[in-house]
What does this fold into?
Amino acid sequence: MIRLPGLVDLHVHLRDPGQTHKEDFLTGTSAALAGGFTTVLDMPNNAVPVTTARTLSDKIETARRRIVCDTGLYLGSLGEDLSPLAELHDRVWGLKLYLNATTGSCLMDATRLARVFSAWPEGRPILLHAEADVIDTVVQACRSTGRAVHVCHVSSRAELEPVLEAKAEGLPVTCGVTPHHLFLTDEDATGMGPVGEVRPCLKSAADQYFLWENLHDIDVVESDHAPHTPEEKQRGTFGFPGLETTLPLLLQAEREGRLDLDAVVEKCALTPRRIAHLPEQPDTWVDVEPVEFTITAESMQSRAAWTPFAGRTGFGRVHEVTLRGEVVYRDGKVLARPGSGRLLTPTGAR
Ligand code: DOR
Ligand code: ZN
It folds into this structure.
């Protein structure tokens, strides 16, 4: 067995409430446990975006009943009415801003960034969906406000290079990469047709090479678990499920000498916990059986019921997950009671 700490995913879309035909808090956090994750942070681009007290209360209520691993929520903002940021920040874990169009209706104009940063409490996580066209604006807002920001899912040289330059300048910028941008390219997307749609879209092999060459300076791996049904994918909805394939893809890459096990632990547990100031989980670990297998969507916990990595070789099956001393997952079965995960808020407020 390989024993790992409970993994942390800063970037998942569990769709609950509003689109539970794609996923809900129980199936989504079950997928997290099955993938070795004991903490996830859930994005605000629900069917009705989580930007107001009412939508947030609904989401908190639903999460409390269903989660089986520790879960924090992000607040969204369109950058127009800033009062929810001050009013609701202690009921969520972080703020997520979308500067490019993607699933949902959370799109915000990048010119509003500095104002929004300033309305958010200092020291609390800010994550950004910021593709190449807006990355300079992000760096400028970070420079002018001094706020720490995390750039999600860098997918290309054009996105990563400015982030690396900002880091070299000493700005408090971090970034994450997804398994799909590390393991799939635009050629795979072409082969998949509408099913290959994801935002940021899959990039060239040269861009992918740039990500791998600079992996040392990419702070975290984040799944961007974005479940949609196979039928929806045929219509080109954006996103791939990823919670149950991230670890086996990375462990297989480790076997191939592309990164080492310490880097997997750093990018999937230690650094995301540090970046998002997440609490330690005592007596929490994941036992992984060191076996090679062919990835399929069968027996996955996610309601998505498909994976873009089907047919690829993965390494390491999650055998058992122990959370705060309790075995919560063993050999394909979730043992935790729905609602037994902790809803994470900075003050413990619920
Ligand atoms: O492909 C994506 N899907 N990218 C995003 O930014 C959002 C996500 C989703 O929510 O479906
Ligand atoms: Zn996302």
In short: The mean pLDDT is 97. The chain has one domain: 2-334. The longest strand covers residues 313-323.
